[in-house]
Each structure stands twice: as C-alpha cells, then as structure tokens.
Amino acid sequence: MSLHTLWIALLLSSLTGLCEAKPAYWYRWQSKTQEGIYVCSQTYPGIGWIRIAGPFKIAGCKSF
Known about the structure:
Layout: H1 3-15, E1 26-31, E2 38-41, E3 49-56
Antiparallel strand pairs: 1-2, 1-3
C-alpha cells in the first residue's frame, strides 16, 4: 500500500465515530388551551403546550 492509501484509510476510520447518533427521547405534552389533550412527541409541539413528563425512551410515553 502506498502512503497516500494509508493516509486515506486512517482518515476514514477516524471519522466513523462522528457518525454515531443516539435516538431522541420522548416527552409527554399537555395542551394549555384544551383540557384533557395530551401528545407524546420528541420535539416541542409549539406554543400552547407544556411538557408534563419525560424523558421516555419508547414512543407512547409509557416507561422511563
């Protein structure tokens, strides 16, 4: 192998750690405007919602 090939292999192998990603947590949100309305979401649903529980690892917001 040439020095150039080894350099490229080293560079690519060092970048593999940057590609790892963890799943986002889930949160339970309650509507401020309508009583009894709840949402389970990974992101903020917008104005009018408050986070009431979480983080959860599973969709459905049933277990921590």
